[in-house]
Give the backbone structure.
Amino acid sequence: MNDKQKIEKALVLLYELIELAEIKDEEHKKQSIAMGKGEEAVGESFSVFYLKMLRKILEGDIDLASDMDDAEPKVVILDGEQPTDQQGEV
């Protein structure tokens, strides 16, 4: 299996992971709204954001030298995840 085939297989799996993460994200948003916590239903989750970024990298849509420096996620924190800045500090 050559590198191109490996990337294609990885992308197929990644699309499935993104789909599952989006379903979980949507469920979280609906639950948050039902509990009156609409502020938690804005944006996409950490997982969805970074899975999509990985997809863009594998598809060649991101120039790692320049685009990654400007990438700032707009995320919803799920399941007690702790938000951090670029240095890993809360």
